[in-house]
């Protein structure tokens, strides 16, 4: 999943810095300093101070609306953070991947061992590190708890997809981000998929619900239709 989102975020950070708003390091990572700088800029320019660079903010900040592919859209920063982390892998056996443990520390989640399923932790990190005002569900490590997050929506780019695992009326689940779909499956960008942050195909009939952050404007997009290729369905994401 080739991404130009890092370059897009750097462009936003450069523009903020030039105008006297501190976005933190100009590194292409959408962190809380960048979000806060966007909010201050928006408030100073009569825009909705939601910390999201949508079309209106883009025009005032950059002088034009950013022409980006839907998957690179900076107005879904939690999804861009997820894409940036593709390839992060847990340590099999003794020891832990420091990045995964650090996500928990920064989000205030009690998590000390990456042998414990971390799909919910991954989603919590991506949301909390880019949307400072967004409330996480109680016990975000529990995948099905994300059914109480934000607001329901149609499956669309960047939306949070909650799936059942094991059996539909059980307690096990999986959670990740919509990256696309084919006629049989959703393509899900998530953590703890093959012990890593990756994109897998999950059968449509396993979807419980799609959710959208309450503090972010809904970016209604067309379906992202992808080829199924030769990949098999993911059947156990723990």
How would you describe the overall organization of this protein?
This protein is an alpha+beta fold and 238 residues long. It folds into 2 domains: 71 residues, Muramoyl-pentapeptide Carboxypeptidase, domain 1 (Orthogonal Bundle), CATH 1.10.101; 135 residues, endopeptidase fold (from Nostoc punctiforme), CATH 3.90.1720. 26% of the residues lie in helices and 17% in strands. The protein is built from 6 helices and 6 strands. Strands 1-6-2-3-4-5 form a 6-stranded antiparallel sheet. Strand 2 and strand 3 form a beta hairpin. Helix 4 packs across helix 6 and helix 5 packs across helix 6. The longest helix has 14 residues. The model has no long low-confidence stretch (mean pLDDT 91).
């Amino acid at each position: 999943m080739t991404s130009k989102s890092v370059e897009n975020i750097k462009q936003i950070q450069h523009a903020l810095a030039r105008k006297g708003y501190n976005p933190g390091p100009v590194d292409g990572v959408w962190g809380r300093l960048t979000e806060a700088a966007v909010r201050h800029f928006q408030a100073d320019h009569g825009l909705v101070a939601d910390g999201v660079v949508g079309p209106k903010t883009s025009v005032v900040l950059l002088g034009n609306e950013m022409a980006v592919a839907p998957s690179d859209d900076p107005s879904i920063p939690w999804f861009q953070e997820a894409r940036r982390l593709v390839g992060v892998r847990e340590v099999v056996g003794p020891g832990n991947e420091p990045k995964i443990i650090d996500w928990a520390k920064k989000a205030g989640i009690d998590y000390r061992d990456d042998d414990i399923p971390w799909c919910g932790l991954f989603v919590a990190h991506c949301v909390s590190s880019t949307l400072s005002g967004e409330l996480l569900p109680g016990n975000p490590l529990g995948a099905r708890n994300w059914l109480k997050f934000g607001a329901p929506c149609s499956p669309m780019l960047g939306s949070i997809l909650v799936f059942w695992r094991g059996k539909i009326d059980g307690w096990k689940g999986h959670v990740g981000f919509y990256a696309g779909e084919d006629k049989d499956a959703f393509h899900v960008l998530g953590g703890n998929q093959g012990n890593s942050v990756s994109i897998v195909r999950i059968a449509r009939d396993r979807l419980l619900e799609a959710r959208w952050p309450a503090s972010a404007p809904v970016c209604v997009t067309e379906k992202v239709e992808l080829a199924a290729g030769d990949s098999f369905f993911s059947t156990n994401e723990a």
